[in-house]
Amino acid sequence: MAPVVSSVRSVPLSTSLSMKAALHPQFHTDATVTCVCGNTFLTGSTLPELKTEVCSLCHPFFTGTQRIVDTGGQVERFRRRAAARTAAR
Ligand SMILES: [Zn+2]
Q1: Which positions ≥6 away from 27 have C-beta within 8 Å?
Q2: What is the pTM of this model?
Q3: pLDDT tens digits for 4-25?
Q4: How many other CB atoms sit within 10 Å of the CB of residue 35?
Q5: Per-residue model confidence as pLDDT tens digits over 27-48
Q6: CA of 68 to the centre of ligand 1 (A)
Q7: Separation of 27 CA from ligand 1 center, angstroms?
Q8: Ligand 1 centroid from CA 74, angstroms
């Protein structure tokens, strides 16, 4: 005799898996992503158009070149201070 599983209820697939109407936003399968470096590519999004500041073509992790954002020449000031200290020794 087969075991009886009492916790499984028989629910019709059409009612249990159907999405609610007018609840989900429109999904664009060909949304255009535009990067400030000029690169564009397609993705899926609820927005038809996206803008980004960094992408896989211009991010330092992928380009291999290091870039630092120097505000107010602080790096240059540090280098001058460090050079003055080593010269004093
Ligand atoms: Zn980019």
Answers
A1: 44, 45, 46
A2: 0.48
A3: 555 555 655 555 567 788 888 9
A4: 18
A5: 999 999 999 999 999 999 999 9
A6: 16
A7: 24
A8: 26
